[in-house]
Amino acid sequence: AIGAPGPDARLNRNQLSEGACLAGIGLLEYGGLRHVAAEHLQDLVKAFPASAAVHERWRNRLLIDLGAEGMRVHYAKFVAKASDVPAAQWFTGYANLVAAEQHVRDARSAEARSAYDTAIDAFAQSAAGNESFADSANHFAVLGLGGRALLRHLAGDGEGAVADLLRAAALRPASLDEADGLERKPRALASRIARELAAAGKTALSEQL
Q1: Which alpha helices (H) appear in the chain, and where do they start and end?
Q2: pTM above 0.70, yes or no
Q3: Phi/psi class of residue 78: alpha, beta or left (left: φ > 0; alpha: ψ in -120 to 50)?
Q4: If you ran DSSP here, which 8-state letter would residue 204 be given?
Q5: pLDDT for res 57
Q6: What's CA 153's distance to the chain center, in Å?
Q7: How many whole angstroms separate alpha carbon 189 and alpha carbon 161?
């Protein structure tokens, strides 16, 4: 399975400290002290900026408390201050991918498109900045490109949709048959878009897929 990049491999004592802090934050939340827990979680992100476990907790907390756009704002600030920019770009890309999918669920197409744009760009920068992140970043970029392609298609931009799908196929072909958070696979999206373009008489575009 494709997951977060490798930078959260660290000394065992740091892993124990990280886990203990997350457990403590959970206890604060359980005790109704969510505001205090949120402050501690923000500090933990600063202490472990490349931890997949910390980011998962932070991302979920931001999404619940502030919504998809609030989460995006916090990740924009996070990456702007990061010392390890490729790692921060990876986590920012993933947060924006999550935000885009939430916007799709909520039928907010403009917001979803913006989040997909940010996710795709962030993953590209992460891959370019650290080769060890490239495979994972490219995988999630393919899922983002598939999601954005459908939005473009539904908005009448067949050329843009096809361009995104061709870019996805070239970037990481193995990811075309992997599902995104909405259980959609880029290859299946490409097939749908090709059929609908052909039905609309846009055969030159549909045949590219």
Answers
A1: 12-30, 34-47, 52-80, 85-105, 109-129, 134-154, 158-171, 186-199, 203-206
A2: yes
A3: alpha
A4: H
A5: 87
A6: 21
A7: 10
11, pLDDT greater than 50: no
Whole-number Cα distances in Å, 16 to 19, 23, 135, 151: 5, 10, 28, 43
pLDDT digits (tens, 9 = 90+) for 13-45: 444 477 666 665 665 565 665 665 666 677 778
Q: How far is CA 166 from the centre of its chain?
A: 20
The answer to whether the beta carbons of residues 97 and 143 sit under 8 Å apart is yes
pLDDT average, residue stretch 129-157: 97
Token code pair at residue 103 = 């916007």
Task: Mention every residue, 6+ apart, whose C-beta is less than 8 A from residue 123.
Answer: 89, 90, 93, 137, 138, 140, 141, 144
pLDDT at 5: 54
CA–CA dist 103, 108 (Å, integer): 5
Residue range 175-187, pLDDT digits in tens: 999 999 999 999 9
The pLDDT value recorded for residue 35 is 67
Q: b/e string for 58-70 if b means 16 or more Cβ within 10 A?
A: bbebbbeeebbee
Residues 209, 54: Cα–Cα separation, whole Å: 39
